[in-house]
Amino acid sequence: MFVVTFVRHGETECNVANIIQSHTPGQLTERGVSMAERLGIHLADEKFTRIYSSDLKRCHDTTLNILKQSSHHVPEKEGYSVEELLVLDEMLRERSCGPLELQPGEELAKIMRETGLKFPYMPIPGGEPYPDFKQRTAKFFNMLCKLADVAENEENVLVVTHGGWLMGLLDHLVDCPHDIEDFDESLVHLRPHNTATTKLVIHKHDYSKSNEGSKRKVTVKHVHDISHLPDHLQKEA
Predict the structure, then answer these.
(1) Which of 179, 150, 185 minimizes the C-alpha distance to 167?
(2) Which is nearest to 187 in space by CA: 216, 202, 166, 201?
(3) Which member of 9, 74, 80, 198 has the greatest number of CB atoms within 10 A?
(4) What dihedral angle (degrees, nearest 10) is formed by the CA atoms of 12, 15, 18, 24?
């Protein structure tokens, strides 16, 4: 079994101020740190075999605060910290908003009103085109699928990324060639709360001729779950 838990980063100062972060680093608030720590406690007994994070500071810091709560060392390497598994990956960055970086969120709201499309789906002049962004999420997901195919043992993967990135990934799952089980497509357009988790099981695909034409199976366990957060952290600041 190849299990992947995707996480949106903790609350940031720009989230609270409604400032467009895009590819800027982002600084976690005290609430954001608490969110990550709560999630870490919730996942403390999970033995992760692979850990990925966006290389942007808000995700990296979220990941480290999650891992501080881990009760496990690196598998079969006693004496090493679980942080040694961490890979920082630019593919997990939020969609680039180009010249709108660090501008008031109202600038994106104007585009949404004009186009009738929500973030991250609408066009952003000077920003990363949405089809390119969606393809970036697909590329990372396809990499995970390849790892699932060659895995000799069970794998448990943690991926810490951004709200728009997660929405792009779910949008990819809607029209990807895989057999997606237990997926409520109405959730695709919901922006995840800070530290919300989405959990998938990627099944190994049989490429034999006898199985030709069959689809890879992906099971959705949950989408944008925040049950690890107490009520006061589930509310927007």
Answers:
(1) 185
(2) 166
(3) 9
(4) 60
* Catalytic positions, written as ranges: 9, 94
pTM of the model: 0.94
Distances (CA, A) of 141 to 15, 200, 221, 230, 232: 26, 11, 16, 30, 33
Is 197 one of the annotated binding-site residues? no
Q: Does residue 11 have a known ligand-binding role?
A: yes
Domain limits of the chain? 2-198
Q: What CATH class has 2-198?
A: alpha beta
In this structure, are strands 197-202 and 2-8 parallel, antiparallel, or unpaired? antiparallel
Q: Is the peptide bond before 120 cis (omega within 30 degrees of 0)?
A: yes
Any binding-site annotation on 50? Answer: no
Is residue 93 annotated as involved in ligand binding?
no
DSSP conformational letter for 23: T
- φ and ψ at 160, to 5 degrees? -110, 125
pLDDT tens profile 187-235: 998 999 999 999 999 999 887 756 667 889 999 999 999 999 999 999 8
- Phi and psi at 50, nearest 5°, equal -145, 140
